[in-house]
Amino acid sequence: MIEISAKELAALLGAHLEGQPDTKVTKLAKIEEADAQSFCFLANPKYFHFAQTATVGILLCDETLEYNAANIGAVLRVKEPYQAFQKLMELYAAMSAPKQTSGVHPQSFIGKNTNTGDNLQLGAFSSIGNNCTIGKNVTILSNVSIGDNSNISDDCIIYSNVSIYHGTQIGKCTIIHSGAVIGSDGFGFAPQEDGSYKKIPQTGIVEIGNDVEIGANTCIDRAVIGATKIGNGVKLDNLIQVAHNVEIGDNTVIAAQAGISGSTKFGKNVMIGGQAGITGHLTIADGVKIQAQAAVIRDVPEKGKGLSGVPAIDAREHYRILAYMQKLPDMAKRLNELEKKIS
After folding, report:
1. Angle at the Cα of 215 from the Cα atoms of 137 and 167, rounded to 5 degrees
2. pTM listed for this prediction
3. How many whole angstroms separate alpha carbon 63 and alpha carbon 114?
4. Is 80 within 8 Å of 99 (Cβ atoms)?
């Protein structure tokens, strides 16, 4: 982090400043690892106790947090600490990111009838197929493969070792991390009379909206017919499987190792926890919250509903059941005693 003062940070974030305006910091740090040169951020109540014990240069927090002024040089108070921290991190990332220059590496390949926009960066050993369109300010790092008839819109970043199959459509400002595979064949096989399976051709494509982020080693399968669709603003973590003909609504977020079976359709603003599983051909309403390791096997028509457990049920009901399960040994003991008395 470039050396910066509390007064300067307060101006950038629109924060109320307490303490010494000239306090300067040179690095970002977790509060449990901080020192007098550190800028720290506190929003999770689990860590609030560190505000009493940690030595910190500048602390960003909400409008009510109590802290030990003897150990903290300056405090920046804001209404929404997460939003302020996000703004600061965007500024920090912009300042500290290596400067990337446009240009096509001599050991890369661009196919026939492919149009590329201004400021393309194409890394070594990357290839773009025939009849593709690449927008402006696109960064494609090394060892990326982009199939024929694909379109990538402006301001996208595709990290090394990404495979994008033919016909894929990607919107603006999308980020795809290393190892992701977009447009691989869906898992479609027809059982035969002799017990074998015959592959069903997967003839569709993948359509990805604007401002999407796709994590490392995540796989999104092409549709059997039509398109697998990822809406605007969707954020996919690492190691997620999205099967053929799935449709994910705008601003949905999905944590790592979740799996979604074919032809399931999600509304907008859905939240899915890590290792959750969703079976095929379901419809999930807007704003549904599926907790980690839940197994959803039925439609969820109610907007904003919370689900938990295997199979997934209403989250509050699931926690009541878990509370009763903890009491089962004592209940069984009491039942045995009652049976003995009766007999």
Report:
1. 60
2. 0.85
3. 54
4. no
Cα(175)–Cα(8) distance, integer angstroms: 31
**Cα–Cα distance for residue pair 14/2, rounded to 1 Å:** 19
Q: What is the DSSP string of 30-51?
A: -GGG--TTEEEE---GGGTTHH
CATH top class, domain 4-96: alpha beta
> Does the annotation count 281 as an active-site position?
no
Q: How far apart are CA 166 and CA 179, in angstroms?
A: 17
Element (H or E) spanning 327, and its range? helix 315-342
- Provide CB contacts within 8 A for 192, sequence distance 6+: 198
pLDDT tens, residue order, the chain (343 aa): 679 999 999 999 999 999 999 999 999 999 999 999 999 999 999 999 999 999 999 999 999 999 999 999 999 999 999 999 999 888 877 776 655 566 999 999 999 999 999 999 999 999 999 999 999 999 999 999 999 999 999 999 999 999 999 999 999 999 999 999 999 999 999 999 999 999 999 999 999 999 999 999 999 999 999 999 999 999 999 999 999 999 999 999 999 999 999 999 999 999 999 999 999 999 999 999 999 999 999 999 999 999 999 999 999 999 898 888 898 899 888 989 998 888 7
What is the rounded CA–CA span in Å between residue 235 and residue 222?
Answer: 18
- Exposed/middle/buried for residue 136 (C-beta within 10 Å: 0-12, 13-18, 19+): middle
Show me where the domains of the chain are located.
Answer: 4-96, 103-315
One-letter-per-residue 3-state SS of 153-165: CCCCEECCCCEEC
Question: Which of 49, 105, 244, 318 is flagged as catalytic?
Answer: 244
Distance (Å, rounded) from C-alpha 59 to C-alpha 107? 48
Q: CATH assignment of 103-315, given 3.30.420.240, 3.40.50.920, 3.20.20.140, 2.160.10.10?
A: 2.160.10.10
Region label for 83, one of left (φ > 0), alpha (ψ between -120 and 50) or beta (otherwise) = alpha
